[in-house]
Design goal:
The chain is an alpha+beta fold. The protein has one domain. The chain is built from five helices and eleven strands. Strands 1-2-5-8-11-10-9 form a seven-stranded mixed sheet. The chain has a two-stranded antiparallel ribbon with strand order 3-4. Strands 6-7 form a two-stranded antiparallel ribbon. A hairpin with a 3-residue loop joins strand 9 and strand 10. The longest helix has 19 residues.
Length: about 240
Amino acid sequence: MLCNQPNDNIEQEFNGLEKSQSIKKIFNFIEECLPQFKNRHSLLKPEDGLTQELVYILDNESREKLPLCGFSTEHMEDTTKGNSRRDDIGIRAIHGVTINTTYYPNNKPFIAIEAKRLDSKIVKKRKKEYVIGRYDDEKYIESGGIERFKKEIHGNGLVYVGMIGYLQTNSFDDWFEKINKYIDEEINSSSSNELVWEEKDKLTIDKRNEFFSTYNSEHQCKSKEISMYHIWINLIQK
């Protein structure tokens, strides 16, 4: 999986993709586009607006630098249902792709990405939303980013998924500690009787610079195991 076997799986090449377009290199492409995003995001605060702008940049840049892949936002998981859950970002192979014997046609993402704000000023009941959901008027809202993938609300049928964190307050180190603390709490006492949380759910550091930081994690979902790649973007204005 992504964090334990990077050479075997992150760089694994798939049928339908050119040699330079492995899973890892797709995420590297996203990272390469971040400086352009950094220069254009200053008036944007809500995660939907940030994600829309990011996808606009990714899709434009991919036409030249990643021509066999397409990026879309608010991609419906099931186009036959009007109330279908929507992935924040879907990555498609223009000519389809086969991964681990599963074929993904050109209208189905083979990577799904969720985006969340990392903002300590967010209302208290939403502070753990990168990991788990919240209660609203005694009703549980399945709004947690990692939780949605583990429950297969997002990324159903996928083995490679991602999370983007928009860092708006504090530091990468602060949020790394917070997120893994929230996961530790779920390991000790899960908020959902549907999910089991383990040590491998916790984030491990991949690489870091002043502008962005990346992490890996593995997760047992309802029916399969997935590899998750996390990209956190520093959007704090200096």
